[in-house]
Automatic annotation (TrEMBL):
It comes from Oryctes borbonicus. Residues 310-414 form the Fibronectin type-III domain. Gene3D superfamilies: Immunoglobulins. PANTHER family: CYTOKINE RECEPTOR. One of its GO terms (cellular component) is membrane. Keywords: Membrane, Transmembrane, Transmembrane helix. Signal peptide: none annotated. InterPro entries: FN3_dom, FN3_sf, Ig-like_fold, RTP_Phos/Ushers. The chain crosses the membrane at residues 564-588. This is Fibronectin domain-containing protein. It comes from the Eukaryota.
């Protein structure tokens, strides 16, 4: 039997191999099918640690029916070498070929190895391990994006890379793009981007930005300092190398801690110093992960007791003013001296004013300093004035004092003189004042009315001076409405706008309580002249935007309207009278219709029982 047979390789893809089969049989009766067998190869055959079971298990038989021109083998493993054998049992044909499938378009997740990133002080070494053979599905190219100041974009397919000229102790993000080829690195749809974060190693620290010696005694020295803006690491320790001609140099190390007194600075104290020696203090810091201290800053000083500095930000507040006795408390506050110099063991507080001076002391134990100090001085009389001074002291010296004047509240600030709106109509407005506080000798209320307009105020100068610019308005038509004395026994009513006259002693003139205009805004000032222990105090109260309601005018009835009203009343009366007459006539006629006159011989009786219509009785 003559035959001609050929097997032609056509194409392969990631998971498919296609062949062209041509079988020409001279005897048409032959219908026996041929077969094809495929077997994947293990890329890890030289490595006993890994076994690529997926590739090894990619095998099988495929029957080729007669006259099928194409054979397709599906479900193959990408990037795998195959052994494909074609067998024709009739003609004893065997042919073996060795094709391989294409790699995947994109690297798969497990295929990208984990980089070994080894940062140093100013560079980073990157090692790219080869993908494990059991998860390799094609060649891989890497592109590293620019990092640092002088490292350009790099494309490699090699396992090692070093990026230099980096900054010490700096966080970096390494951006790596991964693709099957260099061309695919430029196609966002054909690449994968991965990120690696790392921090370069710290470097030996630079010198401190500044250092100050803020406190010294015979045995201790305290420093405040600021860390360098770029420390090239994480500062962990501060070292003080105290050197003198007698004791030589002695290095002590301390943790870096913020100051209790100045939150934006760091502080450190060295103790057990020798008395009255000249020292050179050398301060430096050490970064975590380094084995040496950085640059030093030097301060020269002698261990001796010094005068403490002056307190700053001295202020006061009045508190706890009594409603029954004429005293208040004063809270005095001050900040710790910035230029402290000597050790502080106490603060002395002096109040000089009426009567004997007051001296009080705030003790400081074991150098337990605070940013701000408070002290209450109690039972200071209303209206009294004091000069308050505060100074820092130690066992040897007393510092310069900070001082200010303190004015204790007037009693008028703690009595009830607030006017209340009592009544308002179209002509006047009435306010009511409470009873006079019995702690006051007397109180006179002067009322000044101001109108909201742009007219110049024409109040007397001595009254303006007494109010010290505390009236409602700086401009506006203004006048004095009068003065009223408050009473211990009764509330005082003040009526404004009644056009009354009175003599006002403070301005030595007659004033008129001018009428107020409706629909006009006014501000009423109540100037209270209080006498307390033969001393005058002035308190001012305001009632603003007072406006009288509009006057309701009576209705004007014209003569024409009057005539029309009279005619209307007459017509209504006539109509009502006519209705009454008709109703009466109708009632009378109805009554008469019910009565009937008896004819001659007709009697009135009641019908008897069993009487019928024929005047007979039925028995």
């Amino acid at each position: 039997m003559e035959t001609k047979s050929s097997i032609t390789f056509v194409d392969w893809a990631t998971d498919t191999i296609q062949y062209s089969n041509q079988h020409i049989y001279t005897n048409a009766l032959v219908t026996v099918s041929s077969a094809v067998y495929h077997q994947g190869s293990d890329l890890c055959r030289q490595n006993t640690h890994f076994k690529n079971e997926r590739r090894l298990m990619s095998n099988g038989w495929l029957v080729i029916k007669p006259k099928e021109s194409t054979t397709i083998i599906n479900n193959l493993v990408p990037f795998t070498y195959y052994t494909v054998t074609f067998t024709d049992p009739i003609y004893g044909l065997n042919k073996t070929i060795f094709p391989n499938t294409d790699p995947t378009d994109l690297p798969v997740e497990n295929e990208i190895p984990k980089f070994i990133v080894s940062p140093k002080i100013k560079e980073v070494a990157i090692v790219i391990p080869p993908p494990q053979c059991d998860v390799t599905y094609g060649k891989i190219f890497y592109r590293f994006e620019k990092i640092g100041q002088s490292n350009p974009r790099v494309v490699i397919d090699e396992p090692n890379l070093t990026l230099k000229n980096l900054e010490p102790y700096t966080n970096y993000t390494l951006t790596v793009q991964v693709a099957r080829s260099i061309n695919k690195l430029n196609d966002s749809g054909s690449r994968i981007t991965v990120y690696y974060n790392f921090t370069t190693k710290p470097q030996v620290a630079p010198p401190l930005e500044f250092v100050e010696l803020y406190e010294i005694s015979e045995t201790i020295a305290s420093f405040r300092y600021k860390l360098p803006e770029k420390a090239n690491g994480q500062p962990a320790l501060v070292g003080i190398n105290a050197c003198s001609k007698i004791t030589r140099c002695n290095l002590e190390m301390f943790n870096i801690t913020r100051c209790n007194l100045w939150k934006d600075l760091y502080c450190v104290t060295i103790s057990n110093l020798a008395k009255r020696l000249n020292y050179t203090f050398k301060l430096s810091i050490k970064n975590n992960g380094t084995n040496a201290f950085g640059g030093e800053r030097n301060i020269i000083s002698k261990t001796e007791d010094k005068v403490p500095g002056t307190p700053v930000n001295l202020s006061y507040t009045i508190t706890d003013c009594s409603k029954h006795i004429e005293v208040c408390n004063v809270n005095i506050s001050w900040s710790h001296p910035y230029n402290q110099s000597g050790v502080i063991t106490s603060f002395e507080i002096f109040l000089v004013g009426t009567g004997a001076p007051i001296v009080e002391t705030v003790l400081i134990h074991n150098r337990e300093y605070k940013p701000t100090y408070w002290h209450a001085v109690k039972y200071l009389v209303y209206g009294s004035t004091y000069n308050v001074s505060v100074r820092a002291c130690n066992l040897v010296h007393k510092g310069l004092a900070a001082s200010l004047d303190v004015q204790i509240d007037h009693i008028g600030q703690h009595v009830d003189q607030e006017p209340k709106l009592l009544q308002m109509n179209q002509e006047v407005v009435t306010f009511q004042l409470p009873k006079l506080d019995r702690r006051l000798n007397s109180s006179t209320i002067i009322v000044v009315v101001q109108q909201y307009d742009n007219e110049k105020s024409n109040l007397p100068q001595n009254l303006i001076f007494a109010t010290n610019g505390s009236l409602c308005l700086q401009k506006g038509t203004s006048w004095v409405a009068g003065a009223w004395q408050m009473s211990y026994n009764d509330e005082t009513n003040i009526t404004i706008g009644d056009n009354a006259e009175m003599i006002l002693g403070i301005i030595n003139a007659v004033v008129i309580n001018k009428p107020l205009l409706p629909k006009t805004n006014y501000c009423v000032n109540f100037i209270a002249e209080n006498i307390f222990k033969d001393t005058k105090y002035v308190e001012i109260y305001h009632k603003d935007h007072i406006a009288l309601p509009d006057i309701i005018k009576p209705l004007e009835i014209s003569r024409t309207n009057t005539n029309i009203s009279i005619i209307t009343i007459v017509l209504v009366g006539i109509l009502i009278l006519t209705i009454v007459i008709f109703v009466g006539i109708f009632y009378i006629r109805r009554k008469q219709g019910r009565r009937r006159t008896l004819s001659d011989g007709e009697h009135i009786y009641e019908a008897m029982p069993n009487e019928d219509d024929n005047d007979t009785f039925n028995v």
